[in-house]
Amino acid sequence: MNGIVYLVGAGPGAPDLLTLRAARLLERADIVFHDALVHAEIVALATRASKVAVGKRCGKHSTAQKFINKRLVDAAALHEVVVRLKGGDPMLFGRAQEEIAALEAAGIRYEVVPGVTAALAAAAQLGTSLTQRGSVRSVTFVTPRVGDGESTGTWAQSVAAADSGAIYMGAGQAEIISAILIAAGKPPSTPVAVVENASLPESRTIFSTLEALPQFAQQILNGPAVIFIGPQFRARARAAQREQERADASARSGR
Ligand code: SAH
Question: Whose CB among 5, 37, 193, 218 lies 3.0–4.6 Å from 233's, allowing a Cys bridge?
């Protein structure tokens, strides 16, 4: 068999944010290797396929990744249409390059199908553009997460140098993130918005500032979350506060 492997973005969570291309490939798939985070309704679109859950949440373990690479290569020898279904977009914090390298080394054809990445789903939900004409001209996508033996890199400097940032895989490290970004030169009053489970019904948002973020760290979070840093979140935070005050007032007056 001379199969083809599709690295497919499943989007941020909500099944109807899947692309049509992804849905059609799932219908044709013989075997699907999916991330743990992918919604069951999306996996269920692969009616003909055997379905294999791979990877931990934020699967960071390199042996596990090597095992996934090998399974993709092996599957292409047995099946015509192999789908590797990954949360969000495969090309952003998705370890797609390691899978591509393994497929190329084995001479296996592959194609990548983009998906809606978490930060863009979260921005949509907040109604806050990640860029703002004239004031927010850059947005940086970073993660503070480091694997075994990796150096910490320059993620904090790149957030400090950009007008705004989206931090992936950082929710468990709110305290450290706050300290490092302030040390890197971000003003302590910089607005922060943390969006958990973007696009899903159970989604929650916490508004804060860089200096106050550690206090909120406890409230965060069971699900995956994106941390936004940037001036454009100030107006959204005020609007949320006004909404909350109105809701409280109407609850008090018994309406
Ligand atoms: N390739 C994925 C990111 C994988 S890394 C993408 O493009 O979205 C996993 C991280 O993505 C999580 O730690 C979290 O920061 C973020 N994430 C994934 N799904 C999310 C969601 N529904 N809401 C908020 N953040 C999410």
Answer: 193
